[in-house]
Amino acid sequence: MPARILIVENERETAVLLRDVLTEFGYLVTGVASSGAAAMVRAQNETPDLALLDVSIPGEMDGARTAHALREKCNVPVIFVNANADPQALHLAEISEPLGYLTKPFKRAQLQANIEIALYKHREDLKCRERMESLLAALRALGAGVVSVNREETVTLLNPAAEVWTGWGSSEAQGRPLHEVFPLVAERNGERIYARVAQVLAAGASEELGDGILLLGSNGAKRPIEGSIAPIRDHRSEISGAVIVFRDRRKGSGRLRPDLERPSGFSMVAASPAMQHVMEFARRVAESETSTILLQGESGTGKDVMARFMHHIGSRRDRPFVPLSCAAIPETLLESEMFGYEKGAFTDAVAQKPGILEIASGGTVFLDEIGDMPVSLQAKMLRVLEERTFRRLGGVRDIHVDLRVMAASNRKLASAVEQGRFRLDLYYRLNVIQVVLPPLRERRDDIVPLAKHFVGHYNHRFQRSLLGLTTGAALALREHDWPGNVRELRNAIERAVLLEESDWVQASNLWLASAHSLPELRTRPDEPRPSYTLEETERRMLIEALDKTSWNQTRAALMLGISRDTLRYKIRKFNLPRPASIADTAPGDIQ
Ligand SMILES: Nc1ncnc2c1ncn2[C@@H]1O[C@H](COP(=O)(O)OP(=O)(O)O)[C@@H](O)[C@H]1O
Ligand SMILES: [Mg+2]
Fold this sequence. Notes:
This protein is of the alpha/beta class. Among the domains are: 4-127, Rossmann fold (3-Layer(aba) Sandwich); 442-584, Helicase, Ruva Protein, domain 3 (Orthogonal Bundle). 41% of the residues lie in helices and 18% in strands. It contains 23 helices and 25 strands. The strands form six sheets. Strands 6, 7, 8, 9, 10, 11, 12 and 13 form an eight-stranded antiparallel β-sheet that branches. It has a five-stranded parallel β-sheet with strand order 2-1-3-4-5, with helices on both faces. Strands 15-18-21-14-22 form a five-stranded parallel β-sheet. Mean pLDDT is 84; it is low at 253-265, 515-525 and 586-591. Magnesium ion binds next to helix 12.
């Protein structure tokens, strides 16, 4: 579709000339107005994309006023056309911020370049504004306070709760440094505290605000708060800023309650600091009224479990949680599954059927692998997110739903946006709050607790009674890189529990391919010897002796021909963990 252009010019000759040139260039001239007032009427009726405006038009509305009104009232950007670049006209141009400026006589190519640049800038502005609007809409409903900042740590947005608590209006706060709008002090001694935003921006992992913190309102009021800081990534997966979600410490539950960590049906393991931060952040988001949440993480990192966890601790926990994988279902079926259909909508539709969105109303719908959603459905989904409204296939009635939408994707979503397979507007609509699950290799402290948890689970399932993991097994697990994340770990433990003949899971039954995974010393003479260092060989011998004797240090020392003191010293030196017994973990009931 050609761009639509309005000409505002009182000299007839120039207007006609302009019209001819523009038409020749392939633009559509919607009309010619000879005064500011006439331009406004035309702009309202004809909705042009751009106006070419003579600065010196006569009438009550001069060029600057007309430009301003066109932009503010009709959202039409302006290029100024001027007979001569006198200082007064230049000044006018400066204050009314046109998107382009041409001084007569100008070349045709110059005119075209100005128009193209202005159209581009305007489109970018619109996109930016849309993003902001949708962000605001989603944040307005939040009970928790939300402050977001860009990479320079200047404020980009406050939601209403944050406005009340900081005493700043969102628009006056925008562009100011975070520590000015959101000043924190220690409860203990009143000392200034700086939120660890720089660390979050640098490392891309969430952090807690910290304990014993007071938020200093602009009126001097101090409010005890708790909260989390999480990174925000743009559609290229680069960190573009951070969001702080916080609330009044005096209201509500404080830390995760143990009973809430294990909602019925499954349990989640979070032992590493990184994962505990993610869980805290997720809990705050879940408890707030945020209606759209994007879960990001590599495959197998636990997006499914996290979605269920968040549903179970939110206020919708007694309502349905309905998962739907956008990748597993063919396009046409996906559409009817989601939106339902009316009788006769297609040949097989002998009766009407409500879709998942309707069934989940009041609860949560979990759209897994959203990056694989067909483009044709994305527009419909956008409407659901924006208006909470849709129609069944073949239906004429709008159906309203009250939904929390959680969507999950791995990093492929970014490339889907890049390749045009995923709508940018839908991405921004989903991307209000991200919960990012770190890959397992970046939270190695979770590996052994997860492994113990799975041993308990498979004991139960296969009626075994393994006691846990040997030191060798625990070390081998910790050293592995887990490209398949928790899912891979779970499979490795399942196999090991099935294969294990002793009371403890041994490293050899984990089948880990990594080079230094197993303390395997007995190589056949014809096999090339692995080239271990003396230290590594010593470490492996210690592990093997300790595992063989179930950590009976007297027997292990005897076996190695060293004193018990030397053995103890070496255990400390190599930092060898005791076997990981599952005795302290309840058999988890995970799906
Ligand atoms: N923190 C966790 N605690 C317990 N089990 C987990 C945890 N994270 C993942 N799992 C298990 O690992 C497997 C993969 O998790 P899933 O949520 O399906 O990953 P994703 O959806 O990210 O691919 C599942 O069997 C899940 O139960
Ligand atoms: Mg999944």
